[in-house]
Design brief:
143 residues, 5-stranded antiparallel β-sheet, two-stranded antiparallel ribbon
C-alpha cells in the first residue's frame, strides 16, 4: 500500500517571501532539472505561491529564488527545500550569486534532487504509520 501524504506549508517563511519588497522572488516545486539549459528555465516544475499557504507532497522539492540588496545593487539568491511531514527543511542556500545564477547551482541541485534524502524516507514511514493508526480509530496528538 503506497500512501502519499501532503502537508500545508507557509511559504511566507521562505526568505523575502510575502513582503512588499519590490525585488523579485518566486518559488517552484521541482520535478527535475534540465542540465542542457543555462538559465532559470532549467528548473522544471510547477510554480508555487510564494506569499501564503500551499499544499505539497511530503518528499517533494521546492526551489525558492529571491533578489537581495537594493534596486541598483541586487544579487540573486536561491534556496532548496525539501517538504517533510513537519513542514519543510532547507537543504542548501546559495547567496550573492552572479547574474547567471542558474549555472552556479544547477548541477548541484540536479544531484541533490536525484535521490531522496534518508530523512524523507523516515518521515514518509512515520507519516504512513500515523495515517494507518488514524484509519484504525487511534487519535494522534502532536506535541
Amino acid at each position: 500500500m503506497n500512501i502519499i501524504s501532503k502537508v500545508i506549508i507557509n511559504t511566507k517563511k521562505f526568505p523575502n517571501s510575502g513582503h512588499s519588497n519590490p525585488l523579485k522572488n518566486w518559488s517552484k516545486r521541482l520535478d527535475g532539472v534540465d542540465q542542457s539549459k543555462s538559465n532559470g528555465y532549467a528548473f522544471e516544475g510547477l510554480w508555487v505561491a510564494s506569499d501564503g499557504l500551499v499544499e505539497l507532497e511530503v518528499g517533494s522539492w521546492v526551489l525558492h529564488y529571491w533578489d537581495g540588496g537594493s534596486r541598483s545593487r541586487h544579487s540573486p539568491n536561491v534556496a532548496l527545500y525539501q517538504i517533510t511531514i513537519d513542514g519543510f527543511v532547507e537543504i542548501k542556500r546559495w547567496t550573492n550569486l552572479p547574474q547567471q545564477w542558474a549555472l552556479s547551482c544547477r548541477d548541484e541541485i540536479a544531484n541533490l534532487i536525484a535521490e531522496p534524502l534518508i530523512v524523507d524516507e523516515i518521515n514518509e514511514e512515520i507519516s504512513n504509520a500515523i495515517i494507518l493508526l488514524e484509519q484504525n480509530g487511534y487519535q494522534i496528538i502532536k506535541l
